[in-house]
Design brief:
By secondary structure, the protein is of the alpha+beta class. The protein is built from 11 helices and 9 strands. The chain folds into 2 domains: 2-87; 107-332, Bira Bifunctional Protein, Domain 2 (BirA Bifunctional Protein, domain 2, 2-Layer Sandwich), CATH 3.30.930.10. It binds phenylalanine. Residues 168, 170, 210, 248, 251, 254, 273-275, 303-305 line the site of phenylalanine (PHE).
């Protein structure tokens, strides 16, 4: 029996070592370890072995079974490695790969990010508020009387419950003052909505950036310096600004800003509204807060607001505002 075991071991290891594919490996497994395989039938021969020799043969058979399983496993791993190697052998792993296209930021987003970064360097924090607003935040708190044309249903989108889509992000300035004592220095970038007929220069939704700085002794010079610095950072040191007296219900005095810059096509364009916060706005905030921290006798502030869409269009020479929202990849891929 010793010899039988040795012969079978040699035969099995040789055969398994020579196997070159999966099917032959499975066949070898069955032939040696299967229910009626060679090792199994040898075990059945134990019955004829003298009782005293059984433990020794038992151990030898176990070793044999173990050796055959180990050889099968090793061969299987080897076969897998070979097929993996064959699968990549025709690939040149040193060639440059094909890069996944990651897209680019929308031109409006790019401009917005630059503007936000610039104001942040000057110490402005970003403030946010809801797009659906109360009339109080959009108009009353901003000293805009009930008969003001902006409150008209022809100009502003009203919801059936009396709320509205904010027509400017000045609403955020009110919300910030409601919740935060001075000093505050914030910008409010975001969507604003007006009932405009959609054409090449108008959409019913546009993107605004408004700002507010309230503290003791904020002056018109601070307003002018801040905005001049900002627009020169954005559009180059040669940028010219012109502050034209204007009227807004929520600022006094108020100005409109015209700008001329190489990057914007070198022609004057109307750009922004700004001014010193009207005492009536501070009074409305005080009344809502129930304290006097925004007493117009102790604090002053400036506010400004401008649309980003037209600036982005001039910068990138985009002829039609609708292109900003059509999601046409042929357009978007250019940025
Ligand atoms: N809210 C004004 C607008 O939407 C802009 C503005 C903001 C003007 C702050 C003055 C002060 O046109």
């Amino acid at each position: 029996m010793d010899q039988q075991i040795e012969v079978l071991r040699a035969e099995a290891l040789a055969e398994i070592g020579a196997v070159t594919d999966r099917a032959s490996l499975d066949a070898a497994r069955v032939r040696f370890l299967g229910k009626s395989g060679a090792v199994t039938s040898l075990s059945e021969g134990m019955r004829n072995v003298a009782k005293d020799d059984r433990p020794r043969f038992g151990k030898l058979l176990n070793d044999l079974r173990q050796a055959v399983s180990t050889a099968l496993e090793a061969r299987e791993i080897r076969l897998l490695e070979e097929s993996d190697a064959a699968a990549v052998s025709s690939l040149d792993l040193t060639l440059p790969g094909t890069f996944a296209q990651s897209g680019t930021l929308h031109p409006l987003t790019q401009l917005m990010n630059r503007a936000v970064m610039c104001f942040r360097r000057m110490g402005f924090a970003i403030a946010d508020g809801p797009d659906i607003e109360t009339e109080w935040h959009c108009f009353d708190a901003l000293n805009t009387p009930p008969d003001h044309p902006a409150r008209n249903e022809q100009d502003t989108f009203y919801l059936p419950d009396g709320r509205l889509l904010r027509s400017h992000t000045s609403t955020v300035q009110i919300r910030v003052m409601e919740n935060t004592p001075p000093p505050v220095r914030i910008i409010a970038p975001g969507a604003a909505y007006r009932r405009d007929e959609v054409d090449a220069t108008h959409l019913a939704q546009f993107t605004q950036m408004e700002g507010l700085y309230v503290a003791e002794d904020v002056s018109l010079a601070d307003l002018k310096g801040t905005l001049e610095f900002f627009f020169r950072e954005l559009f180059g040191p040669g940028t010219e600004l012109q502050f034209r007296p204007h009227f807004f219900p929520f600022t006094e005095p108020s100005y409109e800003i015209d700008i001329r810059a190489e990057a914007l096509g070198n022609q004057w364009m109307e750009l922004a509204g700004c001014g010193m916060v009207d005492p009536a706005v501070f009074e409305a905030v005080c009344e809502r807060r129930g304290d006097r921290v925004y007493d117009p006798e102790t604090v002053t502030g400036f506010a400004f607001g401008f649309g980003l869409d037209r600036l982005a269009m001039n910068l990138a020479k985009i002829p039609d505002i609708r292109m900003l929202v059509e999601n046409d990849l042929r357009f978007l891929k250019q940025f």
